[in-house]
Amino acid sequence: MRPFVARFRCAEGCDFEAGLDEVVYTCPRCGGLLEVAHDLEALRQRGAAEWKALFDGRFRTGPWPYGSGVWGKKEWVHPGLDEAHVVSMGEGGTPLLRVDRWAREIGLQDVRVKECGVSHTGSFKDLGMTVLVSAVAGMRAKGVAIRAVACASTGDTSAALASYCAAAGIPCVVLLPRGRISTAQLVQPIANGALVLELDTDFDGCMTVVRELAAGGRVYLANSMNSLRLEGQKTASIEVAQQLGWESPEWVVLPGGNLGNASAVARGFLLLRDLGLVSRLPRLAVAQAERANPLYRAVSAAGDRPGTRLSDVQVEPVAAQPTLASAIQIGAPVSARRALRALEALDGVVEQATEAELADAAARADRAGLFTCPHTGVALAALEKLASRGVVRPHERVVVLSTAHGLKFSDFKVAYHEGTLPGIASRHRNPAVRVAASASAVEDAIAARFGPS
Questions:
Q1: The whole model's pTM is what?
Q2: Domain 96-121+229-418 has CATH 3.20.20.140
């Protein structure tokens, strides 16, 4: 059987290629980002039914590391990596929840939430970081000189990188924008022993610094411009199809910041289609916070120019303003061109959400049983708007990617229900009620809420 292989190649069409164990992030000829290219002819040596049976047999139950939602698809992710170098924390295999009550409230029949935050460090970033850190472990074992692995982060990336590096015994450096992430997000890399550096700038400023360090060979870059990350993140798409009985939903909706995840979602579904495991592609909706919306602005402007191809659109950087969705407060997304190609391939749209819209959408979904982070609130608010305009039709099945666990943003939740978020009316506020310690006082409170018995 022809071996399964994958290599870096230029995503912009140059003929540049490199091995996955080479320290390279961009094309040396055109400066474009890279992508991981798999040998599809080799993968087609197994039929769709064989791949489905293999993946189903491993899903959450296979021998280590194949019970991982990522490494259970190893042949489609990093086929050449020695198992001895895999660094896995049981990532993936996350629930795909039906949220029927919330769906009915917004006029839809079938909405499911892929709970990517039910993961080791509480966010979807684990999916990509297990691949990147495992690759680094393999490279170091071969003698590649990597002093430390580093990232710029708005919180979740740093937590995932620090955890996986700690498990592998690899030095880790994280650059955070001072005062712009939650306490829970800050303490995670500290607890895992990373060198945590708080910079007096925003995420884009941190990204500039870490890219300079990586370009000089002083650190190995772990941000999503490193396409190894996307290979892990694309497995969320494969899981969604698997959990739907190897079918694609009509829509996938996700929040977008640095925009690598939009590309990863498309890569997963395109590979599923190309290998015959699904018969069609879903449509893609990328949701941005209104205060950090360069992709939304660019695509909206292109819509005013009939005949414009999304792959030809230029995404101009913006000065991202503070937003409750702090993880996507990014004004110069490095994967903008990747995201445009994903939107073009999946007939996608871009929507935005105001601060009030994202906060109210998160609270409304919570009242239907979820516990959402503010970034997922952006995606939920965007879906509400798309449904109200008829872009998403009532009968269409929708999957929303929830990117982080709501417990990492408890301050946001508390402030919403206390009514102390600046400029937000908290339409679904539900504060605790203080009552006397007596049965009659409790009964009065119950009657006030639900009516007399």
A1: 0.95
A2: no
